[in-house]
Records
---
Amino acid sequence: MTDGPETQASAGRYDASYAKYMDHTVLKPETTRETVKRFCDEAKEYGFASVCINPTHVVYVAEQLKGTGVKTCCVIGFPLGANTSFIKSLEAMEAVKNGAEEVDMVINIGALKDQNYTLVYEDIKAVVDAAHPKAIVKVIIETSALTDEEKVIACELVKRAKADFVKTSTGFGSGGATVDDVRLMKRTVGDACLVKASTGINDRATTDKMLAAGAVRMGTSKGILIVKDEKPAKDAPVVY
């Protein structure tokens, strides 16, 4: 991966081959419009896959990214996944109407742990039906809250619901993506859907490990550091 073409940006030289894997992510509740604009500008400059934001910012972000090739990505049922399926489907429909081209939903984690797999499946399917075909759906299973057996079951339900991606984490749970989890998820879903690794991906070395394990998207606020192969400052604020 490190042999990709280098491109000159205003911030300096960087490896453009990594940019396509990055969902430039800003989801903190205190996020301001100024911060959202900065993330949009950065995503356009570096050619990231998407800007991932909360629903309240979708209209603004879609306008900022129009015609650039950078997608507008909106989270659904975030971060707890505890909304009803009806509310999640409405969120997805509104997000797509407002310009979202990708939606990242959170499963009903408690229902999965209760072994209420019908509810979990129907919850995912409601969002898939609301978003397709205009937007792709990534399903967050919150791996840090699950056993390996539950991770496999969640991935099987994501496949069955015909979502486009299964995703590790919200960034608001007790942990983030691990290489072992990404490898397990990829092994479970095979070619039926793709894998997104999220949270804790702050440098090039970690990104390379996630790519090797099978992830093709990274949810991170550190995309610029990754494409430039720089280390985050020890006192750098965590945005995602």
---
Amino acid sequence: MDNPFKTILVTSAGTGEGKSTTLANLAVAIAQTGMQVLIIDCDLRKPVQHKVFELPNKQGLTNILVEQLPLESAVQFTRVNNLSVLTSGPIPPNPSELLGCERMKGLLQQLKNKYDTVLIDSPPTVAVTDAAVLSAQVDGVILVLRSGVAKIDMAKQAKEQIEKANGKIIGTVLYGVNYSGEDYQYYYYYGEKKGRNLNA
């Protein structure tokens, strides 16, 4: 059965809500099922996926879009089987314009044909237009809201901006819920409990 959601954007309403951590853990979980997964770090303002997976970020998405660097030269393997990352590359002066260009649309289609699942990390929705621009180019959007941090009005605004851009919200994640009474921790991609939390 074909996967109707091959390209998925993960965003949040505001900053520090855990979208990047949520995306990384989701990517690992999918890769562990045997599917070929690619993460694209489209947060061209505050990229963190290269830090999560301990990868260099000298070249990446922006080099493909601006310099027409071959895809094969930019995608990096991780230590997780079946999981690759296309880091952001150098931060550009015009992120929204770059993410909305025709070359970006063509790249997403190319990757959609190459991988089982493509997960896209974007900036928060309310602060800038990047997420809205991308939401129209993907199969679905996951909105991450941090427990105790997310404001109802901001969450509604994020939802409205995505839908106005013809994006399709396929799920919402409530991040950082305290089940144990201890400080929230997450399981990193080696299966080890880590105290470090990027909160991005």
